[in-house]
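Take a specimen:
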Amino acid sequence: MVEKLRLDRSNQLFEEAKTLVPGGVAGIRRPYNFVPGEYPIFFDSGQGGRVVDVDGNQYIDFLCAYGPIILGYREREVDEAVIEQIREKGFCFSLTQPIQNSLVETLRRLIPSCQMAAFVKTGSDATTTAIRVARACTGRLQAARCGYHGWHDWCVEKKGGIPSKLYEDIFEFEYNDLDQLEDLLTQHGAEMAAIIVTPIGHALSRPVQMPKPGFLEGMRRLADQYGCLLVFDEIRSGFRVDLGGAQKLFGVTPDLTCIGKAMANGYPISALVGSERIMKVLEDKVFLSSTFFPNSDAQVAAKKTIEILERDQVLENIALKGKRFGDQVEQVVRASGLPVTFSGSPWMPYITFDLDPEKRYKVLRSAFYTQLIRRGVFLQPFHHGYICFRHTEEDLDYTVQAIRQSLDELKAIA
């Protein structure tokens, strides 16, 4: 049994923060989304694939800021490109800087569905723009959704403060359940503007799923059959599973694609990309504007990050490391004999505990992640992790051993 971490400074800052910020820190980062009392609440710094909390504890970080860190923290080439832009040219203006065109040309070269692009800031911005564009393009109101698409009114899971009329035309279906989607379209196809889906399934607290044979192809067929747009939410899979996204990997091209997260290694940028015919509704039929959408600092970061991803074959490196890591963890999980599932290899590793009527899985989950964080491995109990470029083979080997030891500790209470 390893000792509990010293988290005095984190706890002190959290108590102070609760008098200043509702909940102390932003929603998904609150202690109840980890193991309260065991996880740090405030980080101090990061470098490569590791982070340090305000109490000086160091962790191998597999959450990667919930996805944006594809290279590593404080990636010098990216940061220096941004600093040069800020010092030599500036980044926030009344008019757009030329880097916009250069970045879109790069996206067009890489992403099968991209003929035009509109830059925004967050994943929620991109998915909401996609639904607005789809409605304007088709003249229809409804949408079928599968997966997490952000915090805006039409898609947020928690409905407090949102009138029901703002989401009553959104219908949910389960990932890999093509029959359920077809049933929805049979009922609502004439009014369906869009089918929006994460091409890799990553529902909260559930194992990561890859598409079953024919699932993505079936959605493409149904969208064409019913005259609605197919939207891939590639906020997490874009610039991670392939430079062209999951659509390139699986060979299914949507009408619109939402990208973000890893595109700029932590700088705030996302985009909606798609065919020229569809995207052109943003010229006059759909309003999209923000003071900060054209800011060039994040666009420069994205251009440099993509350059490094291509030059250093980063995604190939991540896939190889992730596959080796995943195979080892899978062996450890099977050998444990515990009701535990490993999924998401090679890009989004996740360890979940199988549901049971007595809800023992909750006890096992908290105990496992308590042991893991005490061993300096930062993974989230309710969210899959990520492999980044700067995770070393030593980091991954250590993590495999930490997982094995943590599962061994559970056998006394299983």
